[in-house]
């Protein structure tokens, strides 16, 4: 009887470890890396208003740089090439930062805001609540939560400012790569 119990426990442990061989963040990271070198056109699918600076502009993301633990994704709004989403993976957690540059490549005074996932998340979605650096830099953004969704057909970048009506989503069709745009401002090859 004891051998059966031990054998059953070992089998359960093996099944659990097999099912947990990769975390949601690992699978998410692999999907993100599969886009490397490609560019995609997007559209605002939530939060657009007539006076929004993104409205009516061509929106392009370029998964430009994929290192082992860092992926950089420039996000162009028309001719404005000031924004890059920087994702960093460490110990099964992913950090999202927003790198903003001026046309001459110097950092904007509002840059490097974002947050780190609080758990390993799912393979198709990761959440990034505002971190302390963001709270110090942009106090009204202290309740921001960003999230990114990925799968084999789409990538969405989302923002929700809790306690307000602020919401923003831009969606990209990753099944239709487009021509690679010029480098973002301040980019060093």
TrEMBL record:
Q: Where is the signal peptide?
A: 1-19
Entry keyword set: Signal
What is the top-level taxon of the source organism? Bacteria
Q: Does the entry feature the keyword Signal, yes or no?
A: yes
Name of this chain's protein:
Secreted protein
- Please tell me the species this chain comes from: Sediminicola luteus
